[in-house]
Amino acid sequence: MNFRSTRGKEKGVKSVEAIVRGIAKDGGLFVPDSFPRVYEEIINKKGASYEDIAYLVISKFFTDIKIRELKGAIKDAYTDRFKVEVVENFLELYHGPTCAFKDAALLFLPQIMKRAKNIIGANEEIVILTATSGDTGKAALEGFKDVEGFKVVVYYPKDGVSEIQRKQMITQEGDNVHVIAIEGNFDNAQTGVKNIFGDEELKKELLEKGFRLSSANSINIGRLIPQIVYYFYGYIKLIENGKVKEGDKINVVVPTGNFGNILAAYYGKKMGLPIDKLICASNENKVLTDFFNTGIYDKRRELILTESPSMDILLSSNLERLLYEISNRDSEEINKLMDSLNTNGVYEISESMKENLSDFYGDFATTGEVYKAINEVYVKKNYLIDTHTGVAYVVHKKYVEKTGDNKEVLIASTASPFKFPRSICNSLGFEVDFMDDFKVLNTLFEESKNEIPESLSNLEKKKVIHTKTSKIEDMKKSLKEYLGVE
Ligand SMILES: *Cc1c(COP(=O)(O)O)cnc(C)c1O
User: Fold this and answer.
1) Distance between the two ends of the chain, CA-based, in angstroms?
2) Does the record's keyword annotation contain Lipid metabolism (predicted)?
3) Under 8 Å between Cβ of 43 and 238
C-alpha cells in the first residue's frame, strides 16, 4: 500500500514516510491508494478483541511495517489503557487516559511514529509542538509521554481552558513532556506555534542540534487509520447484542469538528462495513451542515463558543480527503477548491461531486436542544451523555423525524460526561452555581450515582509539575530554553 497527496504532486509514498512527515510537500493530505475490503475477515474471526480488529484494519494500510512491529504498536497503545464499550446504541469512545475519544488516535500515533522513524533511520529527536484549547494537548501528552526519541511541548491559553483541563495538563508526568501557559487566548497560542513552524532559521538551528519539529494534529494518516477500527468493533457488538444480523445496514452519527472521526467511518464503509448513512452532527458552528445541504463550504462567519468546545471549528481540515473521493480523485479540482478556500474563505463543489455526497446527511443542534437531550436521556434511560454526544443524539432524532429511517444506529459518544460536569449538571437541574469545577464533578457523582473515571477523580490531589508561563512573543525563547538550545 502506498500513499499519495490529495493535491496530486506526490504519489507512491511509503506509509512510514507519510506518518513521519504528516503533511505532503504540496500542502495536501496523504491518502491511501485504495481501501481494501476487510469486513468479511473481521466478521469471520469470531470472538475478535479490539486489538485483533485493530490489527486487521491497520495492517491493510501500513504494509511496510513488519507484523510483529505493528502488533507491538497496537499493544503498547491500547493494552490496559483504552477500551471501547457499546451501551445500547452509544459507541463509548472515552475509556482512555483523557476521557475523550482522541485517545484512540493519540495513543496509537506515537507508537507507530516511533517505529516508522526507526525504519526510515531518522536519528533526530522529534519534538511534537501543540497549541491546545484543552483536549488535544492532554491527549498528546499522554500518548507521547516517555516514548523514546520524542519530546512533547504543549502551549495552552492561561485563562482559556477549564479548571479540570488545566489541572490535567499541569500535573502531567513523564520525562519528555513540557507544558507552558501562554498569556493570551487559544488563537494567540496557535498563531505562535504556526510561527515557530514557519521559522526556517529556527528549524535549521534546531536540526543542527538534533531536533526535528513535528505536530500531532489530526491530519496525520497515523491518527486517522486507527479511528476506523472502532466502527467495525461497534458493529460486531451490535451483532452480539442481537440488535442487527450480519450484513444488516446501520446508520452512524458522529459529532463533528475537524471531520476526522466521521471520515474514519466513511473509510470503514469503503472497506465493507455495512453503513448506510453517515450522519454529520454539528453544533451552532454549522459550516458542515450548510455544506451538506448546499455544496457550498463557507467559513466566513464568526466562531461561536458553545458548550461542545471540541467542535467549535470553522475549518474542517479532513474534509479535503472526502472532497478527493467524491471528485473521483481529481487533484486538479482539489487544488482549485483549496485555493478558493484560502483566498476567499469559500468554495462550491461541482454538481457531479454533489451527487456523490449521498452517503452523508448533515444537521446541527443548538445548546438548548442539547441540554434538553441530556436531560431526556438521563430521565428515560438513566444514562449520562456529554454535550458533544448530546449534539449527535439531537441530530439523529431530527434525522429520524425527517426521513422515517429508523435503522439501528451507532452514535459516537466522544467524551465522558464527567469531562464537562458543569454543562451536564446544568442540563439536569443540579444546583452548581458558585462551585469550583471539582465540587461540580463531585455533585454530578453524588446526584447521578455514576462513577467518576479514575483519571478525573484523583486529579484534584495530584501534584502540580508544570508552572512555566510565557508571553506570546516569547514562545520561541521558551522552546529553546526547554531544549537547551541557546
Ligand atoms: C475532537 C472532538 C470531536 C470532533 O472530532 P473531529 O474528528 O474533529 O470531527 C468531538 N467530540 C469530542 C469530545 C472531541 O474531543
Assistant:
1) 42
2) no
3) no
pTM for the full predicted model: 0.95
**Residues 300-342 pLDDT 10s:** 999 898 999 889 989 899 999 999 999 999 999 999 999 999 9
**281 shares a domain with 261:** yes
Q: Assign 278 to helix, strand or coil.
A: strand
Please enumerate in sequence order all residues whose Cβ is within 8 A of that of 221, keeping only pairs 6 or more positions apart, or say none. Answer: 3, 15, 18, 19, 29, 30, 31, 32, 61
CA of 257 to the centre of ligand 1 (A): 5
- Name the catalytic one among 102, 237, 277, 286: 102
DSSP string for 467-482: --EEEGGGHHHHHHHH
In a domain, 52, yes or no: no
CATH number of the domain residue 410 falls in: 3.40.50.1100
Task: Judge if 341 and 400 occupy the same domain.
Answer: yes
Identify the residue whose C-alpha is closest to ligand 1 atom 14: 310
- 373 shares its domain with 261: yes
Verify whether residue 102 is a known catalytic residue. yes
Confirm whether 132 is domain-assigned.
yes
Asked if the structure places residue 179 within a domain, the reply is yes
Q: Is the CB of 388 under 6 A from ligand 1?
A: yes
Give CA–CA dist 267/113, Å, rounded: 21
476-485: which pairs have CB atoms within 8 A and are 24 or more residues apart?
476/195, 476/196, 476/199, 476/202, 478/180, 479/127, 479/129, 479/153, 479/196, 480/202, 482/151, 482/153, 482/178, 483/127, 483/151, 483/206, 483/209, 483/211, 485/205, 485/206, 485/209, 485/211
CA gap 219, 158 in Å, rounded: 26
Q: Are residues 387 and 272 part of one domain? A: yes
Question: Could you tell me the residue range of the domain that residue 397 belongs to?
Answer: 224-419
How many folded domains does the chain comprise? Answer: 3
Could you tell me the CA-to-CA distances from 347 to 283, 340, 381, 454 in Å, in that order?
A: 21, 6, 43, 45
Summarize pLDDT for 254-310 with one digit per residue, the tens.
999 999 999 999 999 999 999 999 999 999 999 999 999 999 999 999 989 899 988
Q: Does 309 reside within a domain?
A: yes
